[in-house]
């Protein structure tokens, strides 16, 4: 087998990232470089991502990051086999920057351009570090998505649960904003929750009693807003609320994960342990990781988490999805248009705003 090298570009939200990965003649995958430039300092004063500013910042830095990624990988442009770029879902302005850069490079170098679904990147990310056999259950928890999807094999995905309103990362970010904590809210909440009383506030657990693995988090945010309005927000209050919020979230995720395992077993009829991969920015949360690991005691399952750097948005996971597509000759046309909305499971129903859910 010839060496294959893929350049992956990620620019769907507030991180610009360029990576080079290589599949050697023996079949082993190696990350040669994975450069991530966060736009945190630009967005933090606004308490969230400002799409126009995000697009400009991606555009300002993309060329430089491509050069840095190549240099760190110790390769030249001519050594690349294909260029992959996140082409959705995400913020259109940012997607355009990455996609145009990738198409330009691919056409000049006369190599394939490969449009990647960002969620496929998250779904496969763990495979950059560990051999995982198909099928597995993906719990994707990021700033824009929260879903359970069965990864049957590469390019065959069945979503079995999703959020009907906010994504989990969004719930962390909104709660952090209510508590006047920094952005992004996830890491801030995790930090101060460590010294708070997690039983101080009794928060709602929407959809917990419904026999499916869908989520709803917007009611939780409203409940917190009401409590915040009635209290003096001092440091102890923030700690206790952060801890109570985090515990509530993890309780919900745990119950829904057990349901998802049952659904997975029913659909796949797979013998042996159910492999569960937890990916996306919120998978960086240590409390969530530890609590999910505990589920292994009473359930026939095993959890895998990508390392921190591969949980949040990065070019390496996009390059990996690109590699898998390259080897199957699943190239994209240069006329491919970025898709701000692009479900991983093409047949999945659009659930945002649904009140009655049946599975
Ligand atoms: O996957 P990601 O980097 O970007 C998207 O594709 O959305 O996820 C970003 C989200 C943000 O909402 C952020 O607050 C959350 O992941 N996050 C965390 C932690 N680190 C990042 N949430 C909880 N605990 C963390 N340690
Ligand atoms: Zn992401």
Model description:
With 359 residues, the protein is of the alpha/beta class. It has two domains: 4-125 and 310-327, Nucleotidyltransferase, domain 5, CATH 3.30.420; 134-305, ATPase, nucleotide binding domain (Nucleotidyltransferase, domain 5, 2-Layer Sandwich), CATH 3.30.420.40. It has helices spanning 40-43, 51-73, 92-109, 118-124, 168-178, 185-193, 218-230, 235-268, 286-294, 308-311, 315-327, and strands at residues 4-10, 15-23, 29-38, 82-88, 113-117, 136-141, 146-153, 156-162, 274-279, 301-304. The strands form two sheets. It has a five-stranded mixed beta sheet, with helices on both faces. The chain has a five-stranded mixed beta sheet with strand order 8-7-6-9-10. Strand 6 (136-141) and strand 7 (146-153) form a beta hairpin. Zinc ion (ZN) is lined by residues 118, 122, 142, 280, 313. 5'-O-[(R)-(carboxyoxy)(hydroxy)phosphoryl]adenosine binds next to helix 5 and helix 6.
String of helices and strands: EEEHHEHEHEEEHHHHEHEHH
The parts where pLDDT drops under 50 for at least 5 residues are none
- Sheet of most strands: 5 strands, mixed
List the domain count as a whole number.
Answer: 2
CATH superfamily of the largest domain: ATPase, nucleotide binding domain
Our measurement of the CA-to-CA distance between the termini, rounded to an integer number of angstroms, reads 44 Å
Biggest sheet strand order reads 3-2-1-4-5
**Total beta strand runs:** 10
Task: Please identify the top-level CATH class of the largest domain.
Answer: Alpha Beta
Number of helices: 11
CATH fold-level label of the largest domain: Nucleotidyltransferase, domain 5
- Name the structural class: alpha/beta
CATH architecture of the largest domain: 2-Layer Sandwich
Name the average pLDDT: 94
Structural shape: globular
Ligand identities: 5'-O-[(R)-(carboxyoxy)(hydroxy)phosphoryl]adenosine, zinc ion
- The fraction of residues in strands falls at 15-25%
Helix content: 40-55%
Rounded to an integer in angstroms, the radius of gyration calculated over CA atoms is 20 Å
């Amino acid at each position: 087998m010839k060496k294959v090298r893929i350049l992956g570009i990620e620019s769907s939200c507030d991180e610009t990232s360029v990576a080079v990965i290589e599949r050697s003649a023996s079949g082993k995958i190696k990350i040669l470089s994975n450069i991530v430039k966060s736009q945190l300092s630009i967005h933090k004063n606004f308490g969230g991502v400002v799409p126009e500013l995000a697009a400009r910042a991606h555009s300002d830095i993309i060329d430089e990051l491509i050069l840095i990624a190549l240099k760190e990988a110790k390769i030249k442009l001519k050594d690349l086999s294909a260029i992959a770029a996140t082409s959705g879902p995400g913020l259109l302005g940012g997607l355009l920057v990455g996609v145009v850069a990738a198409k330009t490079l691919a056409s000049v170098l006369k190599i394939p351009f490969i449009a990647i679904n960002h969620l496929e990147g998250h779904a496969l990310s763990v495979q950059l570090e560990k051999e995982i056999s198909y099928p597995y259950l993906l719990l994707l928890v990021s700033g824009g998505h929260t879903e359970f999807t069965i990864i049957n094999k590469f390019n065959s995905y069945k979503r079995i649960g999703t959020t009907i309103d906010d994504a989990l990362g969004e719930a962390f970010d909104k709660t952090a904003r209510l508590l006047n904590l920094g952005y992004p809210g996830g890491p801030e909440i995790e930090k101060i929750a460590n010294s708070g009383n997690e039983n101080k506030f009794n928060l709602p657990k929407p959809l917990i009693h419904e026999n499916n693995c869908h989520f709803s988090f917007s009611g939780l945010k409203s409940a917190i807003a009401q409590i915040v309005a009635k209290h003096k927000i001092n440091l102890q209050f923030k700690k206790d609320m952060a801890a109570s919020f985090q515990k509530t979230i993890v309780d919900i995720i745990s119950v829904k994960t057990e349901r998802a395992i049952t659904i997975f077993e029913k659909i796949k009829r797979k013998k042996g342990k159910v492999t569960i991969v937890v990916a996306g920015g919120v998978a960086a949360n240590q409390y969530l990781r530890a609590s999910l690991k505990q589920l292994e005691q009473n359930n026939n399952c095993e959890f895998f988490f990508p390392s921190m750097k591969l949980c949040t948005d990065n070019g390496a996971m996009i390059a990996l999805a690109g590699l898998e597509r390259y080897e199957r000759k699943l190239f994209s046309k240069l006329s491919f248009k970025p898709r701000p909305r692009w479900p991983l499971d093409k047949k999945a129903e659009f659930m945002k705003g649904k009140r009655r859910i049946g599975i």
